[in-house]
């Protein structure tokens, strides 16, 4: 497997970590700058800072920027840039990151005024110096929303985070220390004729002039077989993003017949082989999980476990 050309779609933290493991790989990036979301992330997780890790991994890497992948087949991937379209043959790994969940998925109804931003758009605008609003509501509590809140706290009069699930790597106190108001619940309704003016949760109403959607889902827009980072599983820790990419790289280098992992627990990689059977679990600390018929209690977020032979099933116990 390591003799076959590796083509990595996405030059964020997961893609760069893979390129470190496959020095002869080709890195494709749709944006003008490589690095992804973590290139502007200065919010530490267990002492690790995403932007610092990006800078280290970017050193010496060649990235084909402003190049979009648009079709996969069994031999490789078709890409397009200002020079036209071409096909790159090789084993393709998708490392393009997550997508924001839609209003329909989240059960948000009402008006559709200006001032509602998907997280990635809000992230780019704030990092370019734009003010999104004076009273901002962020829907979702995770590493990415907390990192954005830390930037907005220097610009806005008031920040609210509405959440139904807590972060796997950050305590609620970390948001409170930024002066953020935390509201547990779900957003049900949005009002505003021209611009958003009111958000209704299942417990209260919040006057606001900006809403940022920070609830995420993995995104495999090309239907790739091999996924890295947030394209395969939502990962809040930059160190765990890198570690999960290393697991995938070891699986591909080791080779062997692949078995897809089944069950209701997110995992990376999505496969094991008879030669390499380690995966990372997408759950927090203290969760009872059945791994190949054996019950374990996780000791850390995104714990790495070994799948027993013949039982590639991972489920919440």
Task: Itemize the secondary structure elements and their pairings.
Blueprint: E1 6-9, H1 13-21, E2 26-28, H2 50-58, E3 63-64, E4 68-73, E5 76-81, E6 84-89, E7 91-94, E8 99-100, H3 103-106, E9 109-110, E10 116-118, H4 119-127, E11 135-139, H5 143-152, E12 158-163, H6 172-176, E13 181-184, E14 187-191, E15 198-201, E16 205-207, E17 210-213, E18 216-217, E19 226-227, H7 238-254, E20 258-260, E21 267-268, E22 271-273, E23 278-281, E24 288-291, E25 294-297, E26 304-306, E27 314-316
Parallel strand pairs: 1-2, 1-7, 2-3, 7-19, 9-14, 10-17, 11-12, 11-17, 12-13
Antiparallel strand pairs: 4-5, 5-6, 8-18, 14-15, 15-16, 20-22, 21-23, 23-26, 24-25, 24-27
Helix pairs in contact: 1-2, 1-7, 4-5
Your description of this structure?
The mean pLDDT is 96. 43% of the residues are buried. Strands 3-2-1-7-19 form a 5-stranded parallel beta sheet, with helices on one face. It has a 5-stranded parallel beta sheet with strand order 10-17-11-12-13. It starts with 5 loop residues before the first strand and ends with a strand. It folds into 3 domains: 135 residues, FAD/NAD(P)-binding domain (3-Layer(bba) Sandwich), CATH 3.50.50.60; 116 residues, FAD/NAD(P)-binding domain (3-Layer(bba) Sandwich), CATH 3.50.50; 61 residues, no CATH class. The longest helix has 17 residues. It contains 7 helices and 27 strands. By secondary structure, it is α/β, with parallel strands linked by helices.
């Amino acid at each position: 497997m390591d003799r076959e050309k590796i083509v990595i779609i996405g030059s964020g933290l997961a893609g760069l970590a893979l390129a470190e493991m496959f020095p002869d790989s080709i890195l494709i990036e749709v944006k003008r700058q490589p690095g992804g979301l973590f290139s502007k992330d200065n919010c530490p997780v267990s002492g690790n800072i995403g932007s610092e890790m990006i800078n280290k991994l970017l050193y010496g890497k060649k990235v084909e920027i402003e190049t979009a992948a648009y079709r996969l087949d069994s031999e490789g991937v078709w890409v397009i840039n200002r020079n036209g379209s071409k096909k790159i043959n090789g084993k393709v790994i998708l490392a393009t990151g997550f997508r924001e969940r839609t209003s329909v998925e989240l059960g948000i109804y009402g008006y559709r005024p200006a001032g509602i931003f998907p997280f990635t758009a809000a992230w780019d605008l704030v990092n370019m110096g734009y003010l999104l609003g004076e009273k901002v509501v962020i829907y979702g509590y995770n590493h990415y929303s907390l990192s954005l809140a830390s930037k907005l706290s220097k610009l806005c009069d008031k920040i609210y985070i509405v959440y139904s699930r807590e972060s796997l790597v950050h305590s609620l106190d970390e948001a409170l220390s930024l002066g953020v108001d935390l509201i547990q619940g779900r957003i049900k309704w949005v009002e505003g004729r021209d611009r958003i003016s009111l958000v209704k949760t299942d417990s209260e109403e919040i006057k606001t002039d900006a809403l940022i959607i920070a609830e995420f889902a993995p995104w495999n827009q090309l239907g790739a077989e091999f996924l890295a980072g947030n394209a395969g599983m939502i990962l809040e820790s930059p160190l765990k993003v890198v570690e999960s990419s290393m697991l995938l790289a070891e699986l591909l280098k080791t080779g062997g017949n692949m078995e897809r992992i089944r069950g209701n627990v997110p995992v990376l990689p999505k496969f094991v082989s008879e030669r390499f059977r380690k995966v990372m679990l997408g759950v927090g600390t203290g969760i009872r999980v059945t791994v190949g018929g054996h019950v374990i209690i996780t000791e850390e977020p995104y714990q790495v476990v070994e799948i027993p032979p013949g039982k590639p099933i991972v489920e919440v116990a």
